[in-house]
Amino acid sequence: MNLPPVARTTEDLLAEVARLRAHDLPVRGGQVTAYVYDTGRAEVHDAATRAYLEMLEVNCLDPTAFPSVVAMERQVVGAVADLLGGGHGVFTSGGTESIMLAVKAARDLAGRDRANLVLPVTAHPAFHKAAHYLGVAVVAVPVDLETYKVRAEDVAAAIDEDTILVVASAPSYPQGVIDPVAEVAAVAAAAGVPCHVDACVGGWLLPWLREAGAAIPPFDLSVPGVTSISCDLHKFGYSPKGASVVLFADPAMRRKAYFASAGWPGYTIINATVQSSRSAGPLGGAWATLQALGRQGYLELGRATLEATAELRAGLAVIPGLRVLGEPESSLVAFAGDGIDVFVLADEARARGWFLQPQLSYAGIPANLHITVTGVTLAGVEAMLKVIAESAEAARRRGPAVLPEGLVELVAELDLEAIDDATFAELSASVGVDLRPGAGQPEMAVVNAVLDALPAAAREAVLVRFLSSMYAT
Predict the structure, then answer these.
(1) How far apart are CA 435 and CA 429, in angstroms?
(2) Handedness of CA 396, 398, 399, 400 (dihedral sign)
(3) What is the pLDDT of residue 424?
(4) Which of 440, 442, 433, 438 is nearest to 462 (CA)?
């Protein structure tokens, strides 16, 4: 029974939360190299938690009812604008929502029946999601397979009369490199098209890395032709999840991101974000985190991150069979294997208590593992490299993931819509990936190997069924 017949005590509930989280990846300490961002400073986490709880029940739906929302958002957005070349912003729930609003604003500003986005193949899938929801086509441009950066001339060639927005990344997530923003923005401006910089990862990191001595090229709203930029504060701003900002150079374009409706007899609707009712908790947490760290704190974290990234790259270079992809310019590092199955390596590292994020091959880029270096990584970078070296040797001894004969062909030809979730879960369990409740954490090398062998559309269909099976009741 999901709903208890009588009320339960707080102590009982918290004990069950602890039980339910027993197999979760840890959110502190740096052993999880994706999804979570850790300063290693307990006092900052405490300040954010307290402010989050204080604002938990405040509703961002109506800022006239809760003026604290306006005051905090103005400060948070203002801090981001000060760091990223000015502009006029909106506080959102994350990078995907920030990108969604940037695409909506561009679409509504263009006012065309047909519309497309021009973006690198390395651009975040949030753009594809926004395009899907907003009825916009995607024109993907290849990247240079040595640098993993998009070429401005390829972007220029892809722009046509239906293009409403051009995208560059600072950095792109897969390999941590910064697209040539100035050049891409210039070709977009020459064509009369807005240019969005996806700095969801780097927006609140790159300026501190630059101040710490890194060679970071111009990438923000100070660059001619850049019309909007997204920056996540729940990444390298280290605030609790649900915190991002999208900035527009022109306030008129920001207004295109808004939604208003008066065509009904109820209360008036005006939303700056995709969501209507939403807790101000994330806003309070972001505000408190920025205040608790300040410029000095972020600069110190930037220096530690820069040092840790350099140590990680140097350490990976001497592990036999591993190679870093490209020349990472931020703190995102991806490495591939020569004679080592990186998916097996990831399973070996997971068994040793470390999570390394697998990335499938695509558009000529090989399968690889991704590491996000954060403020807490420096203290554990030697331990991480030791685990990677041990896991690489173990993966070499094990060899590549062994797929049952004909499995890839079977999956590719399977009519996934003709089977229910229970049947899909049974099929998964038959190849060693048991998604059913109580089965524990499966090794993922076989799953990733199958996905890697499939075309993108088939991968997506299988992933949807995986998720559906995991949540089946």
Answers:
(1) 7
(2) negative
(3) 87
(4) 433
**Interatomic CA distance for residues 103 and 228, integer angstroms:** 10
The closest alpha carbon to 35, from 230, 241, 203, 288, belongs to 241
Q: Are 454 and 412 in contact (CB under 8 A)?
A: yes
Phi-psi region of 228 (alpha: psi -120 to 50; beta: other; left: phi over 0): beta
- The predicted-structure confidence for 325-340, as pLDDT tens digits, reads as follows 999 999 999 999 999 9
Read out DSSP for 250-308?
SHHHHHHH-EEE--SSSS-EEESSS-SS-BSHHHHHHHHHHHHHHHHHHHHHHHHHHHH
> Which tokens hold the place of 383?
């331990």
Domain covering 295-398 in this structure, CATH number? 3.90.1150.10
The CATH number of 46-290, from 3.40.640.10, 3.40.50.1820, 3.40.50.2300, 3.40.47.10, is: 3.40.640.10
Query: What percent of the chain shows pLDDT beyond 90?
Result: 86
pLDDT of 438: 65
What is the pTM for the complete model shown? 0.95
